[in-house]
Amino acid sequence: MASTLFIGAIRNLNTISRSDNPDFDQANEEFQAAREVFIQNRKARMHNDEELECEKCTIAMPKGYHVHHIDGDHQNNKESNFSIRCPFCHLCEHIGWVGKNRKGVIIYAPDISQENLNLLLLTAYCLEFSLSKTSKDTTEYETLEQLVLQTQSVLKAFEHTKTKVLRNYQTNCPADFADTFLAMSEDEYQQREKNTFYGLRLFFYPDGFKKEIEMFANSIFQISDSRKSNPLHPSEWLSRASIFQNQKKGIER
Ligand SMILES: [Zn+2]
Ligand SMILES: [Zn+2]
Predict the structure, then answer these.
(1) C-alpha 105: how far from its chain's center?
(2) Distance 139 CA to ligand 1 centre (A)
(3) How many CA atoms are closer than 13 Å to the CA of 177, on its beta-carbon side?
(4) Tens digit of each residue's pLDDT (9 = 90 or more) over 65-110
């Protein structure tokens, strides 16, 4: 599947990020105000009070959405420069931060798009969380346990490909890849997926996202019935599990 999301780092050097800005408080206030208007407008257009979708993986989010500055300029708070993202699809564009905070690793998985990998990871981590909150002598527990066992073996296969990355690039730390991206010419950077960095994906670790996983796991049961096609709706879990198995076969080939 063609990916529209590829690991990247913000290269807009004409601007400073909000946290490096001496006028941080004012810049942040301006962003928060613009963000609020943007979200209200987006909800009004969707005729839906609660759920917004990640613009990359399409997961529905009752809350906890990130707003990304598309051009990397954190002072360009025009609505056209905003994009709604789930935490994973947002952080794929800020891999330096992910690496510095040890929230993920670079793997080699050309057969899955980054968007689908993000969905698989989030689904798997939500399943694990749900299992930990389910009492043992219920049929729900058995179903969940089956799914968790399946997803864990698939995730392990994905994660294992980090050794291939280490061999080929001498590192699999996202921060090192971010440094390389920042040193590239614009042309090289735009072509990065086609050339030197083909097939690389960002694999997120659950420990860095405990709050987010709890939030998603708790909210999926509240996603309205009209959104049954949502990839995280429990009715989708069984069909998802077969996708996990096919992905694993792809990796082991
Ligand atoms: Zn997403
Ligand atoms: Zn961003």
Answers:
(1) 13
(2) 30
(3) 32
(4) 899 999 888 889 999 999 999 999 999 999 999 999 999 999 999 9
